[in-house]
Amino acid sequence: MPQETPLMAVTGTTLVLASPAPSPAGRPAPVRPSAAARLLGPYARLFAVPGARGFTAGNLLARLPMGMFGISAVLMIAGQRGSYALAGAVTATGMAATAVVAPWTARLVDRYGQARTAVPATVIAVLGSLSLVLCVRTQAPAWTLFASYAATATTPNIGGLSRARWTHLLPRSAHHTAMSFEQAADELCFMLGPVLAAFLCTAAFPEAGTLTGAVLLLTGMLVFTAHRATEPPPGGARRSGGGRSPLRALAPLLGLFLATGLVFGSMEVTSVAHLSALGLGGASGPVLALQAAGSCAAGLLYGARRPRSLRTCLLALAGAMALPWAAAATGSLAALAAALLLAGMATAPVMVTAMGLVQSRTPGGRLNEGLTLAVTAILAGIAAGSATAGLAVDGWGTGTAYLLPAAAALTALLIGSATPRPGR
Fold it and tell me: What is the Cα–Cα distance from 130 to 73, expressed in whole angstroms?
C-alpha cells in the first residue's frame, strides 16, 4: 500500500510533522453537499414542519386570485359596458377601499384568530365578486359596480396570514427562509394570475376570470384555515399588553414600502407602454413576466443564503432599476428583457429583508396588522406610481418615463439609509 504523506504545520517557530488521523475503517469520506442540496435543504426543513404543506397549499390557492381580480374586472366591465374608464374607476375604488378596510380586518384576525375572522371576511369578499358579475351582466346602474367591488376589500391579506403562521411555528433562525419563500410565492401568483385571468375572460366568457378567482379564493381559504394546529393563538394583543398600534413603530418602514410600490407601479406602466410602442401588443406579456420571474427566482436563492443588510439590498435595487432606462435607450428588445429580469431579481431581497424588519418591530400580538400595513403602503405606492408613469409616458415618452422607477428606487435607498436599525 502507498505510504500517506505526513502533514506539516508550523507552531510558533517549530515545524511539526503529523500523520493524518486515520478514518474509521469502512466509513466513506464525508461528501460535500451539491449546490442543489444547499439550495433545497433549507426549504425541505421548512416543509418538514407538521401541517406546513397543507396550509401552504391552501395559501397558494387563495393567493392566486390576488393577481386575477383586477384584470378580470377590467376585462369584464370593459367588455360588457364598453368603457375602460369605468372599469379603471371601479378597480381604483376597490383598491382605495382595501387600503382602508384591510388593516381593520387584520386587527380582527390578531384579536379573534385567523379562522374565526378570515373565513367570514372571505365570504363577504366572494359575495362582492358575485354581485359585481350579476350587476355587470344585468346592466345595473354604474354605482352598483362600485359598491360591489368595494365589498371585496374585506379579502384577508393571505400572505400576511401565512407569514404569521411561519413566525409562530419556526425559530427565529428559520424566519429568513420562510419569508423568502413567501416573497417567491407572491411573485409567482402575481405572474400567473393575470395570464390565467386574461385567458379565461377571452377564451371562455367575460365573467369567467372573476368567477374562477372567487372559487379559488374561498376554497383556498377553507383549506388554509382548516389546519388549526398551525394557527397562531388569538388575542395576543390583549394578553401581552400590545394594545398600542404598530403604525407608529412601522412609520419609517411604511415610507420605504411606499417608495417600493412606486417602483413597481411606474415600472409596469412604463414597460407596457414601451413594449406597445415597439409593436409587441398582446405578445408583451412574456417580456413583462420576466420581472416577476426574476424576483421569484431571486427570492428562493436569497432564502438559502445568509441575509444581507437592508442598505445593501437597496443599493442593489437602485443600481438595477437604472438598467431598463439604459436598455430602452438602445431600442433593443433583448436588452430590455435582460434588464427587466435583473431588475426583478433585485426586488426580492429588499422585500424579504424589509418584511423581516416589520416582524421584528411590530408590537406583540399585532403581527397581521403590521404586515397588512406594509402591504397597504405598497398598494398605495403602486397606484401613485402607475398614475405618475401614465402622465410621464404621455408627456415625455417611454424612454424618459423609465427614469421614474430609478428615481423611486433611489428614494427608497435614502429612506432605508435613514431608518434606525433594530435596537437603536
Answer: 11
- The letter for the amino acid at 209 is G
Taking CA atoms, 28 is separated from 7, 24, 35, 263, in Å, by 21, 8, 20, 52
pLDDT digits over 222-251, tens only? 999 999 999 988 865 444 444 567 777 788
Q: How is residue 309 written as a grid cell?
A: 443588510
Of 247-256, 269-278, 282-291, 372-381, where does mean pLDDT reach its minimum?
282-291
pLDDT tens profile 139-183: 999 999 999 999 999 999 898 899 889 988 988 888 888 888 888
Residue at grid coordinates 420562510: 178
- CA angle at 164 for the pair 161 and 170, rounded to the nearest 5°: 140
Q: How far is CA 309 from the centre of its chain?
A: 19
Angle made by CA atoms 169, 171, 176, in degrees to the nearest 5: 100
Residue 131 CB: number of other CB atoms within 10 A?
18
Non-local CB neighbours of 172 within 8 Å, separated by 6+ positions: none
On whether the pTM is more than 0.70, the answer is yes
Across the chain, which distance is largest between two alpha carbons, in Å? 94
Using alpha carbons, select from 168, 207, 267, 169 the residue that is nearest to residue 75: 207
Which distant-in-sequence residues (6+ apart) come within 8 Å of 11 by Cβ? none
Cell triple for 386: 402607475
Q: How far apart are CA 120 and CA 333, in angstroms?
A: 47
Q: CA angle at residue 263 from 261 to 269, to 5 degrees?
A: 100
- Taken in order 154, 376, 53, 50, the sign of the CA dihedral is negative
Contact 300, 181 (CB under 8 A): yes
Q: Residue 213: left (phi > 0), alpha (psi -120 to 50), or beta?
A: alpha
Question: What b/e sequence results for 211-234 when a residue is b if at least 16 CB atoms lie within 10 Å of its CB, and e otherwise?
Answer: bbbbebbbebbbbbbebeebbbeb
